[in-house]
Amino acid sequence: MVEQITIPSHVLAAIEEHQRHCSDPMAAFFYDLPALEAHGRAVKAALPENVELYYAIKANSESAIIDTLASVVDGLELSSGGEIERACNSATPLPWVLSGPGKLDSDMRHAMLQGVEAFHIESLGEIARLQVIAASLQRIQPVLLRINPTLPDELSSRLKMAGTATPFGIDEAQLEEAVAAVDSAPNLSLRGFHIHAMSHQKSVQRHQRLLSFYLQRWPKWRALAREPKQITQLNVGGGIGVNYLHPAQQFDWPGLCRTLGQQLEAMPEPPRVRFEIGRFLSAFCGYYVVEVMDTKISHGEDFLVCRGGTHQFRLPVAQAHDHPVIHLPRYAHPSNQAEYQPWTIVGQLCTPKDVLSRHQPLRGVAIGDLLVLPLAGAYGYNISHADFLCHPRPEQIFVGRASERPAPEASHVQSELVE
Ligand SMILES: *Cc1c(COP(=O)(O)O)cnc(C)c1O
C-alpha cells in the first residue's frame, strides 16, 4: 500500500500491454523517460549559476537513460572501460570524466584517445601511471585529485566513502605530496579537486554542512598548488539520497542549492562547483513489476510468491529495507470489501534471502495480479545477480521514447512548500 505514489497512466498502459503479451507470468522493468527528463530538468534548474550537473552513469547506464539525460545534464561521470563504451555510443556525445579506484592502464589510454575531459586521480600510484600514458600519447592531460578529507566528528559519522578508511581518494594528510607529484609530472595539469564522500544522504542539513566544509577548505587545498590560479574546479560528487520508505518525503534539493548559491556568492574566488549525481537523477523513473504466481501460509506468515525476485532487483536486499509495493489487480474483483492483510513478497529463488518486501498490507490479492515496486530506476537491475539460478533476464521497457512523447509527469524535486 503506497498511497504517496501514483503510477503515470502511460506507464500503466505499457505494463498492461506487456502482461497481455506474456505467455508466462511477467517480471519486467519499466522506465518512464518523460518523467526522467522532467525530473532531470528540475534538478538542473535548481542549481546556482555556474554550478554544473554531471550524471554518474553507474546508477543506470542503459542507453535510453543516458540518451534521455543527455539533453539535460552537462556531462557524464564514468568509472570503467565498459562505461566509456556506453557513453561514447550515446546519441548525444557529452563531456565525460573518468573516476574510480583500480583504473586499468588500457582504460586510461583508451579514455585519452576517446577524448576524456579529466581524470579523477585516486592514488599516488595512479599519478605515475597516468603521466607515463599521457607522455606516450604526447598530450597534456587535465586531472582532479580525489580527496579523502579529514572531517570533523559530527560530519564523519555514517559516511562510507570518505572521512574514514576507504580505497577511494587521497588522504588529506597526503594531499601536499600528491599535488607536488602532479605539478612535477610534465604531462599532467592539475585543475582542481574531487570529493565523493556520501551515498544515501537524506539530510539536507548534513549535506549543507559537508559542502560548507569543502568550501571552507578550498583555499587551503588550492594554495598547495604551484599555480593556484589554475586550480578552479571543485567536484563535490553525488550521494543525494532517495527516501524509499516515505516516497512523499524526498530530499530538499532546491533548499540545498539555495544555500550553496549564497555561500558561493560570499566567496572572493569561488570554485567552479560540479555535482555528479546518480541515484537522485534516475531512481524515480523506474518500476519493477512482478506477477503474483502463488499465495501460501507458512508458520503463520502469508507469502506472495512472484515471478522474478532479488536476482533481478537486489536493491531492497542491498538496502536492507522493505520496498514499497503498489498492488494492481488483474481483474476488477471485489477487493474493496477485503481486509488489509500483511504479505511477505518473495521471488523465485531457492534461498530464504529472496525477499522483496515484508509485511506489506495489501487487500484482495489474487494470482495473476501485479505488484509494482517503484523507485527502481537506480542501482536496481544493474546491481543484481541476474544469472543466479539461470532464470531468463527480465525485459527492460523504456516508456515514452523521444519520438512518442506525452506530456511530462511531475518531478520529484520538492517545491519549497513541502519541507
Ligand atoms: C557512485 C558515485 C557517484 C554517484 O553516487 P550517487 O549516490 O548515485 O549519487 C558519484 N561519484 C562517484 C565517484 C561515485 O563513485
TrEMBL record:
The keyword tRNA processing does not apply. GO terms for molecular function: diaminopimelate decarboxylase activity. GO terms for biological process: lysine biosynthetic process via diaminopimelate; polyamine biosynthetic process. The active site is at 350 (proton donor). InterPro entries: Ala_racemase/Decarboxylase_C, De-COase2_C, De-COase2_N, Orn/DAP/Arg_de-COase, Orn_de-COase, PLP-binding_barrel. Pfam families: Orn_Arg_deC_N, Orn_DAP_Arg_deC. The modification N6-(pyridoxal phosphate)lysine is found at residue 58. Residues 36-283 form the Orn/DAP/Arg decarboxylase 2 N-terminal domain. SUPFAM superfamilies: Alanine racemase C-terminal domain-like, PLP-binding barrel. Residues 284-377 form the Orn/DAP/Arg decarboxylase 2 C-terminal domain. It comes from the Bacteria. This is Diaminopimelate decarboxylase. It comes from Vreelandella songnenensis.
